[in-house]
Amino acid sequence: MTSPDNGTTGATDLPEYAPIPQSALGPALNDQRYYVGRVERNLYWVTDGVYQSAFLTTSEGVVLFDAPPSIGPNLRSAVDEIASANGVSNRVTHLVYSHHHADHAGAASLFGGDVIRIGHEDTRRLLLRDDDPARPAPEITFRDTYTLEVGGDRVELAWRGPNHTPDNIYIHFPDHDTLMFIDVVNAGWVPIYNVNLSEDVMGYMGSSAIALSYPWTHLISGHLGRLATRDDVAVHQQYIADIEDSAREALASVDPVPFYVAAGQNMWAGVKAHLDTVTDRATAPIVAKYTGVLAAADIEEFTRTTTFQIMQSLRLDRGVGVSRPAQP
Ligand SMILES: [Zn+2]
Question: What pTM was computed for the model?
Fold first, then answer.
């Protein structure tokens, strides 16, 4: 199987993909290429159609959650627009990092030196490592949980183990019926390459259930043009569970021996032929089932690379299909 746009086509010559379901799309952007909307009461979300950020307007100033550089200065415009409409302060006093990745944090430096930055202790460690002036390390850090109280509003931050990254946290707004949890669920869309570019596959796979264990109606998931619902998370969980089942079936049914016999001394040629065959077999039914259900499910490389990662996690983390010594 090859990618449909395997380096041979230009940006103006994309393959014919399935139409994007209307349900996968969000509200129209304004002339400045952003949308800002109320989630509940004084909690707002901002999107450029690809990335999402959020902010609380409080009596003591604005608390910003993530600063994606693709939205960039439009974050300032969105805060100003809402603050002016509601007659509240537009001064950003706090910035909370969901995780250290530059695509969600790279506009952090736009909000000046006197902003109080808050994040997980591993976010601080990773940002100090990355040494990127656009992403100053948080001064306030926590290990397990942190309650942020500003101007009478309360936000509960929690680290529940590694998933997309070692430091990706759950941001719960208990008084706004909302959870912010970034880079795991794409509402109405498949995850992109390699389990949505995630580092801990088992942590990623388990994180949706943790997200659902919180009470909320609105999920700010970090990407694309609309908020997510609990149903979106359920569909995502089913997609991942189907991949796991399909990968287990393929591991059990593809006999590796003939590939290694055919490869002779080139062991890695045998590995490639075997694992490619398992991955292709596991991927095909998922692409067929989810095309028309999740947007971009027919971009096979996304499901294929995610399936490969989950199949490897089944082997390496859980020992599925890995031969064991006979028990005495
Ligand atoms: Zn990320």
Answer: 0.94
